[in-house]
Amino acid sequence: MHPILFEIFGFPIHSFGIMVAIGFTFGLLRMLKVCPKYKIQPDKVFDIVILSIIFGIIGSRLLYVLIKHSDYTFVTALRVWEGGLSFHGGLFLGILSIWIYSKINKICFLKILDLIAPSLCIAYTFGRIGCFLNGCCYGIATNFFWGVPMPTESGIILSEPTQIYSAIAGITIFFILRRLEYLNKKDGFIVINFLLMYGIYRFFIEFLRNHLPNDFIFGLITQGQIVSILMVLIACIILICSDKKNNNK
Fold it and tell me: pTM of the predicted model, to two decimals?
């Protein structure tokens, strides 16, 4: 673990914050490269990215702190750079802000989401690498040789490197979505497939992540798994309704 990469004039530079910043930067560059395909102006892309970052971080931190409320005070909850974000919370609030923006600027909401989805995978991948360096979001104990030492309340354990698994999943989904873009399907096709693949991956990775007892609903399923199931159901319903609509034409 390297939660602090280096210091500048005594000010610590956190690895998590650096990785998130790198992820958003590469995501932005990709959006600027492909935005002509979606007929969205570059200046609008900057607006969308700024909105996504601001409300995404607020939503991510808010949901994470609500879930882990016993570990935080008001002051420590504001220290976003130290790690601790819920991707689901950021996704929800980020999408809501983009929907409002699309209505105000009269831009197709689904086109914006299709543009964002692959770039979001890039940001997610770097963010999970940041989690690994920071030592958060670690996995359950393992005896396999790839186990990573992680500090816990009960001492250092060898844990599943779930952050690395997640980073691999993120970049894999990115390349799949990138290929799907060439199919030139109707608006919403890319983001629907993103919701489907992310939801499936996240549901299963939750079994390997380390959780506290209060992270479970009825002691059986985590909040993250519930949201993941909803994401998959929404994606499937939209795909089924879309197919029926096309067949009736």
Answer: 0.84
